[in-house]
Amino acid sequence: MADAVHKSPMCARILSNGLPEVIKTWTDPKSGAPVKCRADWDNENMGIIADLKTTDDASPKGFAKSCRKWTYDKQAAVYSDGMKRDNFVFMAVEKSAPYAVGVYFAGADMIEAGREKRDKNLNTYVEALSTGIWKGYSEDIVPVEW
User: Which terminal residue of the chain, N or C, has fewer Cβ atoms less than 10 Å from its own Cβ?
Assistant: First the structure.
């Protein structure tokens, strides 16, 4: 997988300059919650934050499905805002041979959807901190969704 990523012309270009695993911490201005991210790669010269993702399907449709399943939009929003970069890209590499690679840009719609999710999650976190109540699932007995 690593060889496939480094052989990808776009990945090689992104990885040609910058720093790995850049950690940034800050306080969210809306909720007051502490926030932390660790970018896989920060290429300041290109203004790009890159995150490596392994996936079963790195095709455009397959990776979009992974983004929805794993809420990668939220990650893109947190990292872009926290690191003050406008360009967040995913370097997606398939887990099985021939280890196909796709590079995808998190567009404005994706980032905005991620911001909404992030804000909701941070508000839930702050509420739980202040009340000491960490909500899980329903406190009632509910039927199994069969």
Answer: C
